[in-house]
User: Fold this.
Amino acid sequence: MYPVLVRIGPLTVHTYGVLVAAGFLFGLAFAVKQAKKEGVPSERIIDIGFYVLLSAIVGSRLFFVIMNARHYVKHPLDVLRIWEGGLVFYGGFALAILVAIFYIRKYRLDYWSIADIFAPSLAIGHAVGRIGCFTAGCCYGMPARVPWAVTFLHSESIAPTGIPLHPTQLYEAAAEFVNFLILTSLRRHRLFKGQLFWTYVFLYAVLRFVVEFFRGDEARGFIIGRFSVSQGISVVAGFVALMVIIRGMVRTGESQA
Assistant:
């Protein structure tokens, strides 16, 4: 919709980058607030947040580049053009988790307590970031005739212009905001450490699996037919998360019996 926020001479500020940064800062502030309630040093949360951000950007971009290797072999400098989109959440999530584990282990923090602190922040940060995707036109939807279909008109939009499309970026943003509300409410009724994190993984896997059916961008990669790579990852991640949640609830019930 509005890929360029400000353009002053050679300086261009892209709306996508501003909203991704805003989502990160909002999520980090929420995590710091929760950490104080649980007695976790704020500086540790801030450090983890920035390390996670960097690794998430690298991981999400690397995953996208690998899936579209033919293009980037011919145009290697395009790897750096992240303001044009091309970030795969699951790639960033995987690398961010590895980096976070390293940091948490280094400072001997509790893995699952930290994971639960960050879970709602992941949801709200991602929600704001997806609005950034909407402004840039990346992660766009298939042609649609629904009343809420959107038509991109800006010449620098990544999405096809002049065609009514499913606003898949807003679908995901709205669902992630609901996830945020669910996770913040669940915190008061948490039965075991790690429950919020795994609930986030499960909820995101479900929403991503559904939203993928309405996506129209072909560069995200497919396993077979219209079944995308992200849907395949969602099935595995959702199943693992559900099993962990059930196991945790069963163990909690047994310990209270």
Observations:
- The longest strand covers residues 4-8.
